[in-house]
């Protein structure tokens, strides 16, 4: 039985153009996969987090409180996902990595959000992957992989089929946490864990169900970026 950790961007679950059919397909795939895989899903805060963080920052809340608001949004998204995922930890969203691992003795799919201030859910996913010695860590986000520049803001961008972790760390501006709601492809603290524990990590578009399925079932990347250690 392989262990798979997926860090799924909140925007994949809650963006304005989200298709309910997509969520049904995703949930069916994840449930099917539990025959051969133990699955941990760490959900981001998406636009709910960003809206509250933006508002709170304008009002003058400090960074720690902004992170806490972000964490609450991730847990809200996690709770929603458990409602549409059979075999998951309904109504019991773990707040710590160890609690998630403990809960995985009772459920085939564990869904959680953030843990503590100072990083994004990418780092929670990386920590879970490290502690569970996961076979794969997948960052399922709203772009098709890692680019040299943010493809949502620049033209003439180059997408990497693979990238060395040290080059990725340069692109994201180091391994420090920047600020609440910061929007980098993989957050710095997560990169640090991926580097130290040599987790097999891929970045793909979370809306590409075929890419997700092929990666998990065959360890084959049909679209996205492999992070090389
Ligand atoms: P996300 O993990 O959603 O950030 O957490 P993100 O990557 O910007 O969002 P997605 O991937 O598009 O969904 C939202 C915010 O919540 C706080 C941080 O401020 C983060 O930016 N947070 C989250 C924490 O402080 N700790 C956590 O463990 C998780």
Class by SSE composition: alpha/beta
Cα-based radius of gyration, to the nearest Å = 16 Å
Roughly what fraction of the amino acids lie in strands? 15-25%
Residue share in helix: 40-55%
Strand order of the largest sheet: 3-2-1-4-6-7-5
Largest sheet: 7 strands, mixed
Number of domains: 1
Beta strand count: 7
**N-to-C terminal Cα separation, in Å?**
24 Å
CATH topology: Carbamate kinase
| Global outline | globular
Give the H and E element order.
Answer: EHHEHHHEHEEHHEHE
Whole-number average pLDDT? 96
Bound molecules: uridine 5'-triphosphate
CATH architecture field: 3-Layer(aba) Sandwich
* Regions with little confidence, pLDDT below 50 for 5+ residues: none
For CATH, the homologous superfamily is named as: Acetylglutamate kinase-like
Number of helices: 9
Please specify the SSE layout and strand pairing.
Blueprint: E1 2-8, H1 10-14, H2 20-33, E2 37-43, H3 46-59, H4 63-84, H5 97-103, E3 109-112, H6 121-131, E4 136-141, E5 162-164, H7 165-172, H8 188-197, E6 201-205, H9 209-218, E7 225-228
The structure holds uridine 5'-triphosphate.
Task: Give a nutshell description of this structure.
The chain is an alpha/beta fold. It has helices spanning 10-14, 20-33, 46-59, 63-84, 97-103, 121-131, 165-172, 188-197, 209-218, and strands spanning 2-8, 37-43, 109-112, 136-141, 162-164, 201-205, 225-228. It has one domain: Carbamate kinase, CATH 3.40.1160.10.
